[in-house]
Specification:
Elements: E1 4-6, H1 11-19, E2 24-26, H2 32-41, E3 45-48, H3 51-59, E4 64-66, H4 71-81, E5 102-105, H5 119-124, E6 128-131, E7 137-138, H6 143-163
Parallel strand pairs: 1-2, 1-3, 3-4
Antiparallel strand pairs: 5-6, 6-7
The structure holds zinc ion (ZN).
């Protein structure tokens, strides 16, 4: 599976790559040289919408893709280019905050997050995902519907793109 290093300007792209289970380095405050260094040393594909940065990557033999268009189009084009399916399997997702791996906890194991979420949330949900690295906790709350709606939109954009 492809691993990515995502330009600071493309936070939303990094988010969707992580949610679809792709190891994606991203830091909002990183500078170009540091990003190139990470992409090079960790053999990551550099995704950027900055033509200069893309050119620097090419010169250093770093595999990269120059991402064009609106944010949603960028997500759709990257998914097409790297054969990524616009579906989210939370057992494979990476942490949206830090890219860490998630541990799925079912109702018998959820005790582990008791002190990390609100009591109402803890009582209401049976399944949680805990990041191994930053200890963030995820569950399929109200925003889950938004996530599903967004991946549908990406799916549509990918179909339009393929049809043209
Ligand atoms: Zn994390």
């Amino acid at each position: 599976m492809s691993r990515f290093a995502v330009d600071a300007m493309l936070g939303k792209l990094a988010l969707w790559l992580r949610l679809t289970g792709h190891d994606s380095f991203y830091r909002a405050d990183i500078d170009d040289n540091e990003l190139l260094r990470v992409a090079n040393s960790e053999k990551r594909i550099l995704l950027t919408s900055d033509a200069n940065l893309h050119q620097h990557a090419v010169e250093r033999d770093i595999r990269g893709m120059l991402v064009r268009g609106s944010v949603d189009e960028a997500v759709a084009y990257v998914f097409i280019e790297f054969g990524i399916s616009p579906t989210i399997d939370p057992t494979k997702s990476r942490c949206s905050k830090c890219n860490g791996e998630l541990i799925q906890l079912d109702s018998t194991e959820k005790e582990r997050v008791r002190n990390l979420v609100h009591k109402k949330t803890y009582d209401y949900y049976d399944k949680f995902w805990l990041c191994k690295d930053c200890q963030s906790v995820f569950f399929q709350g109200g925003y889950w519907q938004n996530i599903l709606r967004y991946v549908e939109r990406i799916d549509e954009l990918m179909k339009e793109r393929r049809d043209t």
